[in-house]
Amino acid sequence: MDRRQFLCTLAAATLSGAATAAGATACSSTSVGIATAAADETTTAAQAPARSLLPPPPTSARVPLPGGGALTALPGSGDLLAITVDDGVNSEVVRLYTQFAKDTGVRLTYFANGQYASWTDNAALLRPLVESGQIQLGNHTWSHSDLTTLSKSQVVDELTKNGKFLRNTYGVDAAPYFRPPYGKHNATTDSAAADAGYTVPTLWYGSLSDSSLVTEDYIVSMARQYFTPNAIVIGHLNYLPVTHVYPQLVDVILDRKLRTVTLDDVFIRP
Ligand SMILES: [Zn+2]
Predict the structure, then answer these.
(1) CATH 3.20.20.370 domain locations along the chain
(2) How far apart are CA 240 and CA 100, in angstroms?
(3) How many whole angstroms from 147 Cα to the centroid of ligand 1?
(4) Residue ranges in the chain assigned as alpha helix (H)
């Protein structure tokens, strides 16, 4: 095979659809022209529009909340993924996660602790996404205390104060979804939370394991492990490494044909 044939074959092998036809046309010109055309076509292929995330399921597919205990997974047809991210210790991470949602359309649920300035700092950026339903806000208590160490009235106060903050700042009601800090809850805390309107302790199936500082590679490996159909996955708005691996997280979601959802995308509110 001479250089010209090689370039034509290379173009045909690496280009798809219309680009292949263009490459074939280029192969009728001179060798020099072919080399240029092949390089141009390769550039065009590299600039093809990025794959986009699947939209949420239709409203008609929503189901009643199962009730009767903590929520750890999603029901449904098998392509749903609920990415839920918590706390908000670092304002820059809240900003970058929200920008990630804005840029890609990924649907997220934030379990916020209103004590952190991040929720006020980023209100202007975040509010439109909350209003459109792309990002849902859940209640993670005001001060991130282990609820099992508190009295019933303290549990009510933690959730009520945080719920009021979220309503005043974003105009939405986080109830009935709450996530007990550290996942720690029991019949007493669940009963107190229900008294405050929070009837759904929302736990998780898998974790990005980034509540403390871990490496970017580790976070991607956790995503590969836990971004699976019907999973509720927990991550954190606390440390920067996750904000450096958004393309890798999107690749896992796209490769597995998963559909990111908020809890409100899946369940009918009681
Ligand atoms: Zn937390």
Answers:
(1) 59-268
(2) 13
(3) 12
(4) 3-14, 17-26, 31-46, 91-104, 118-121, 123-132, 152-170, 187-195, 216-226, 246-255, 263-266
Averaged over 59-82, what is the pLDDT?
91
For 25-47, the pLDDT digits (tens) are: 333 333 333 333 444 444 444 56
Rounded distance from Cα 219 to ligand 1 centre (Å)? 17
Distance 182 CA to ligand 1 centre (A): 6
Q: Which residue has the higher pLDDT, 68 or 254?
A: 254
Contact 124, 71 (CB under 8 A): no
What's the rounded Cα separation, in Å, for the pair 191 and 118?
30
The mean of the pLDDT values for the chain is 86
Q: Output the CA 236–ligand 1 centroid distance in Å.
A: 7
Distance from the CA of 258 to the center of ligand 1, in angstroms? Answer: 25
* Phi, psi dihedrals of residue 80, rounded to the nearest 5°: -90, 145
Q: How are beta strands 63-64 and 80-87 bridged, if at all?
A: unpaired
* Reported confidence tier of residue 220, pLDDT bands at 50, 70, 90: very high
Mean pLDDT across the stretch 203-230?
97
Which chain residues have CB less than 5 Å from ligand 1, an ion?
86-87, 181
Q: How far is the CA of 206 from the centre of ligand 1 (A)?
A: 14
Q: Distance, CA 211 to ligand 1 centroid (Å)? A: 8
- pLDDT of the residue at 239: 98
Distance 204 CA to ligand 1 centre (A): 12
Which architecture does CATH list for 59-268? Alpha-Beta Barrel (3.20)
Q: Does the pLDDT value for residue 267 go beyond 90? A: yes
DSSP assignments along 173-208, one per residue: --TTEE--GGG---HHHHHHHHHTT--EEB--SEE-
